[in-house]
Amino acid sequence: MVEVEVPASLEGAKLLKFVKKYLKDAPLSYIYKTFRQKDVKVNGHWQKENYVLHVGDLVRIYVTDKQLEDFKKAKSALTPAPFPYPIVYEDENVLIVDKPSGLLVTEDENGNSHNLTSYVRSYLLNEGKYALSDIFSPSPAHRLDRNTAGLVCFGLSDRGLKELTDLFRERREISKKYLALVKGVPNPLEGDISAPLKKHSRQKMVYVTPISQGGLEAKTHYKVLESFNNFSLVECELLTGRTHQLRVHLSSIHHPIIGDAKYGDFALNREVEKRYKWPSSHQFLHARSISFFEVSGVLSPLKGKTFLSHLTKDEENTLFLIRREDNLE
Length: 329
Fold this sequence. Notes:
Layout lengths: L1 E4 L9 H8 L5 H9 L3 E3 L2 E2 L11 E4 L3 H12 L10 E4 L3 E6 L16 H11 L12 E2 L8 E7 L2 H13 L3 E10 L6 E5 L2 E4 L4 E4 L10 E10 L2 E8 L6 H8 L13 H11 L8 E8 L13 E3 L4 H16 L1
Parallel strand pairs: 8-15
Antiparallel strand pairs: 1-4, 2-3, 2-4, 5-6, 6-8, 7-8, 9-14, 9-15, 10-13, 11-12, 13-14, 15-16
């Protein structure tokens, strides 16, 4: 835990600025998370980012020494390098990249430096758009599971990250769509799945849970684009943004995503791996598109734009094999 008494030099400063100063090596996305999880207190009380500090205030930030050391190591380990994956869009505030399946967005609890965020920062170092001495570190505004491919948005400025994060959290003026290969054919072919979800951190699983028992509202719109050989290619739109939402929702209506090793049909996954060369431990889920509507501020250059990610070679190959077998029957 970091515990600091506010000096006279920071009288009148906002709490967010203060926390950034004392967690200077931490990603800004992590700092915002500390506020969301109520891990920042002033004089024993949780406060928001815009709280105005006074001389003598006692600020407590609930972060471990190991986390602080990991942040410092991760930042110091960065070296300039070209970006190895497709860049879909870039301006001074926003970067949109195409993540491959199998890659973490941020480091895991083991401090794995092989992650998308490290590659983005190394690229920006290489381009002279970021320095290790900068207080702000470019960070992702949202997440994708390791085995989900597709579009990820990064904030390249404090303001850019804040506005992007708000946009994704509130689901306003933005549409994020996925493609998923699922078991069977959903009926009806288009509809909404509305089922509250609750994350059980010890089990690292998410379950459909009534709101009265701690579930959070979750809603997904789906549309079947194509059906073949007892499989369906489904377009899904997140109307809320819960952990593992698509995977749990599709499983809850008995049409789990192919390859989903947590919520899927494990026997079918093994069969698909054998017949159609799709790895049984990788969910066939792709963050296909992001559309921006009436956005303003530093996001205004994105207004009215839609960005697309192409399916991976593995995804295309598996669909080809399934379609070919379907046509032969």
